[in-house]
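Journal club side-thread
Mid-discussion, someone asked how the predicted structure for our own chain would compare to the paper's figures. Pasting it here so we can look after the session.
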Amino acid sequence: MNDTLGTFLCPTRIHMGRNAHEKLEEALRGFAAERVFVVADAAVVDGELMQRVRAILARCGARTDTFTEVEPDPSAHTVERAFAACRALDAQLVLAVGGGSTMDVAKAVAILATNGGRIHDYEGIEKFATRPLPRIAIPTTAGTGSEVSGSCVITDTERGLKMSIRHAALNPADVALLDPLAVATLPAHVAAHAGMDAFVHAFESYLSLNANPITDALNLHALELLSANLRPFTANRRNTDAALAMLCGSTLAGMTFGITGLGNVHCMARFVGATFHVSHGLSNAICLPHVARFNLAANPARYARVAAAMGCHVDGLPVLEAAAATIEAIDALCDDLGIPARLSDIGGTPEHYPEMARLCVEAGYNRWNPRHTVFEDFLKLFEDAH
């Protein structure tokens, strides 16, 4: 922890456990919402969870419209289409049922509904002041933590960049329902990649220069939950104990990273995903082992704590040996989940790496990453990962 003033805030009410989706009725009645705009992942819209959600909405007498046209890394054009449908309904509440992209679109629509303008107007930190429409989130992946995070990320296709709209108090969902049923039908590779995204959130947030005692506690427990349950959850998404642990671990990490900031893994993954068109979770997972090795020298003691959280037997070991166990544990986790070892395995081409390294430097992650990183460092990291 550095010597700056620490802060922690999580304004979301969280219900967790088997059949947590049944708390939707209580939440809807609490908001007295008669018109509900639903943003749902197309992959779950015909499944058991959505059937139950529709029954609850009908029981509450809510008028609804459902928007399902959300792509990975959703664009501002998608937000505009969704907002038009929300406005036509004159919605009083937005319900998100989906992964990070779905929840981000729901957040953006809720902001526009009360603040007006275009989502571009709110890029940056606390650029809107009017509370968005109430939001309820049912995450269907255990990865992004968007249900509790203070940011949403929307792609500006004209400028070719991702806009981060951040507000720690007003951007998180008002209510989050963490239900193992919601993740029971995830494909195995999606479960693995999303889970690695959550792991990286907790790992980088714990190592951040802006970490504080509260974020440390949440992140260490998140690392315990995620590292212990990623394998069994990926192997069987209907393992409800593992699924709930993954959802809770993802949410714990989602509470922290907006406060602490993240590090070089996320910095590099931004440009891996944009350049080679692979998912955010997979981009993080490929970059993680290489960045973990690079950053170890900056804070071996914290790495030793991560090793313990991951179940490594490090009691009594010298700090550097205990720290090295974290690298071994990360390598084993990636290998067991079938994460490609190299950028070349997902179509990475070296001619892009100098420009990607330049963009990483410009992104300014040195304010959070534990080891100061310059252009030559980023270039070598990309080359090593190739």
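Post-session note: The mean pLDDT is 94.
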